[in-house]
Amino acid sequence: MSPLDRIANVSILKQHDVHKLYKLEKKPARSSSDQLCFLLRPRLASVRLVAELINADKAAGRARKYKIIFSPQKFYTCELVLEEEGIYGDVTWDEWSFSLLPLDNDIISMELPEFFRDYFLEGDQRWINTVAQALQLMNSLFGPFTETYGIGRCAKMVHELWRDKAEESEVDNMDRKPEIGHVFLIDRDVDYVTALCSQVVYEGLVDDTFRIKCGSVDFGPDVTSSDRSIKVLLNSQDKVFSEIRNEHFSNVFGLLSQKARNLQAQYDRRRGMDIKQMKNFVSQELKGLKQEHRLLSLHIGACESIMKKKTRQDFQELLKTEHALLEGFDIRESINFIEEHIDRQVTPIESLRILCLLSITENGLSPKDYRSLKTQYMQSYGPEHLLTFHNLKYLGLLTEQVSGETLTAMENKVSKLVTDKAAEKLSDAFSSLARKNNFRAISKKLGLIPRGNGEYDLKVPLDMAYVFSGAYVPLSCKIMEQVLERRGWLGLEEVARLLGGHEFVTAAEEPRSPASQQVILAVFLGGCTFSEVAALRFLGRERGLRFIILTTAITNSARLLES
Amino acid sequence: MNRTKGDEEEYWNSSKFKAFTFDDEDDELSQLKESKRAVNSLRDFVDDEDDDDLERVNWSGEPVGRRTRPGSFQSLSDALSDVPPKSYAPELGRPKGEYRDYSNDWSPSDTVRRLRKGKVCSLERFRSLQDKLQLLEEAVSMHDGNVITAVLIFLKRTLSKEILFRELEVRQVALRHLIHFLKEIGDQKLLLDLFRFLDRTEELALSHYREHLNIQDPEKRKEFLKTCIGLPFSAEDSAHIQDHYTLLERQIIIEANDRHLESAGQTEIFRKHPRKASILNMPLVTTLFYSCFYHYTEAEGTFSSPVNLKKTFKIPDKQYVLTALAARAKLRAWHDVDALFTTKNWLGYTKKRAPIGFHRVVEILHKNSAPVQILQEYINLVEDVDTKLNLATKFKCHDVVIDTCRDLKDRQQLLAYRSKVDKGSAEEEKIDAILNSSQIRWKN
């Protein structure tokens, strides 16, 4: 419902004769209207609810007109359910291809959180078309894209599908001056590590702590120091926010207090004013100042709340362990920490998160550790997590170290069963099983752990590592940086191989206009975290480029694992 | 129809919205249209293929008139009147001269393309296995999961499951889509059959096990879990399932018993700390906590005693002590806490040991507002001096700080700490006494 809020809220809908807005639930809709319109995501559960409702109506003898609008598109499985439930003829349906929601000046989200689970876990490629369509839309509005880069299986598929669509489409904008020059497609599973790390830039922390939904966040009473909770829209329009959002948390407080002082100074100015100036002040500036004041207090409250939560949860320790994992020493210590974390039943997602981080950075856990930690986790958080562990194993997020022989043996056995085409895909799959965990090698090659002498200055950061307190440069961003620099994958073949291949470049023949060079569309398939956003913004500032980020959803470690 | 073959060919092959070039057949034009419409609507009862003619009108809000499927009856007139004014757009890739029957004849790749655009497309035409497989291949190469699933829905309906499984075994992408589809639609039976066919025993077991989440009633769930025990899990997973079953069994017994006790109102512990939630389906550690809270003193023989739980589920010492400590500390039962850590060695002397590190113990005690004396006692047991000092300072255990500083011979720190204690307090006096003592050789 939230994306709808961003476009047309209840009052506007009411203006268009909408009587009342209901949320689709199991209860019957008590309404006297004759027409019911359902705005749904194409999920089977929702369709079944609608069917129940309509069938209940039928049983009660009510005849109404029903219309279902699927957003962003309809799936054939939904049609099947409509047919099965016997209401196919009773409803008319439509599609509302609302796929791109701009969350800010440089973030566009497709609001498809289910993308991650559907594609990476279940292997269902249903959303690829949606993404390709969105890409085509961008292409026709802002393109044509001169160069596309990408890495990852999904990226490749989206790219191919999009190329198909672009050729089919009749939009001819070849001679237009493109606003977006390059496109970079990247799969989430190329870089799980970044998504799993705790975020320490302000925006990321707010997301981790309070959950930003669709660009707005609910601040509870402990933040607003009043009895109400407020929903706040967080984007660059909020001046205070736009200044602090990309900053490392340690800076934020300093900046906020600085701002508070400025604000105070501005308020104080009025002491020296005469009537005319005062009038001016009140009519023009006071409102802005008051606004800033309100926002400032809100953000300070949020900061306090975050700090309270984090100190309670031993955040420092957690960060220390994370950094140790990223750099690859003190592994035993880290394992002990994780064990304690699980034993104390802190939070299921946190424990899982850091477990996965351990597994990825270390190429899988030793069988003994895996067994013991798994047992402990299930004892602390419930035996049904047996299923969770299997899912994670499949994704490659939490694995056991397999000896090389077992892998090839498996490969051989299975390849006997399949045709050649599939065998290729299988060996792909197997190498992807093995590759996700080459973190150390990749990290060395790309220099992800900055070797700093002395203190890393977080106030004036030198590179993107500041988003993780100087401990680690986000892999995804680093790849983008390198590829864009070299205009291709030259010299990065080793890295690409370690990441599982499927990299590609397409270059364009026409001369590129310099302006478009500067704008790059980064497409994250499977979600993008705020830390990555901050890192890319930083990179943009450094290189004089502008990144526009298109993502299937904004995510963080919690969302990733919950799904 | 009394038309020549040539006319028919031309008629069917020409695009509908181009004006007829047979100038002398203006009358026939309307006749043709009439009969065409009649044929079209007749066809509706036979098969659905004329839906291609309707371009879905998206934004105008006109309802998409859905033709009835064969089998559900709608009168002919309805079908005729259902035809809304259409806006035709040029149809792409229309095969000329390649028709086999009245229908529009799309090749597999064209069909797949149309499906991707969301256009209605009947797949009934693809009857031979070869055609079906080709359709599937096209769908897979198009990468759109929605289309792949649509094709699979059709194949599932028109192929026997053995053939379907056999063909999908070698097509990984399509196979994954089918599995997901079956999961979504809830066709558990077919899904399990599929896993059995593919010899994916572990997934079979997991899928079956997953069902337990849908069972709300605890007894039924317990019975279901029992059936899961024999499933082909890996060895350790089997043990986990067994544990799950045993745990739920125990929980049901404890729950029934405790509810009875609570309502009887005789037991003190339940009166003082009424239960906030049922113990059913809680994780093992939570169950242990509960048992340490409410049934600490019970002998090993009962189902609800902590010791029994520890033994049955082989809970490691560390975890056990941690949980028991948390429970007893919450109840402020300091003696019990003491007893947890006290062991008698063979000489008969008691000693305090803990498998979890005393700093943790202190933290938990502090969280439960333990009195300072208790805290002090345990802080003193912390081995690492720095940690000891930190904790003592954090929790304001003055005596420990003072003693430690004295032991470290750290005068500066002691002086610094002096300013933190209350004026005129016993601690201050103590500090002063130590500072003035001539026996201590201070470091600084």
UniProtKB/TrEMBL annotation, chain A:
One of its GO terms (biological process) is protein transport. It is found in: Cytoplasmic vesicle, Clathrin-coated vesicle; Late endosome membrane; Lysosome membrane. InterPro entries: Sec-1-like_dom1, Sec-1-like_dom3a, Sec1-like, Sec1-like_dom2, Sec1-like_sf, VPS33_dom3b. It comes from the Eukaryota. Keywords: Protein transport, Transport. Its main location: cytoplasm. GO terms for cellular component: clathrin-coated vesicle; late endosome membrane; lysosomal membrane. It is a peripheral membrane protein. SUPFAM superfamilies: Sec1/munc18-like (SM) proteins. PANTHER family: VESICLE PROTEIN SORTING-ASSOCIATED. Belongs to the STXBP/unc-18/SEC1 family. This is Vacuolar protein sorting-associated protein 33B-like.
From TrEMBL, chain B:
Keywords: Cytoplasmic vesicle, Endosome. One of its GO terms (biological process) is intracellular protein transport. InterPro entries: Spe-39, Vps16_C, Vps16_C_sf. Residues 49-100 are annotated as: Disordered. It is found in: Cytoplasmic vesicle; Early endosome; Late endosome. It comes from the Eukaryota. Its main location: cytoplasm. Residues 128-228, 308-433 form the Vps16 C-terminal domain. GO terms for cellular component: early endosome; late endosome; vesicle tethering complex. The keyword Phosphoprotein does not apply. This is Spermatogenesis-defective protein 39 homolog.
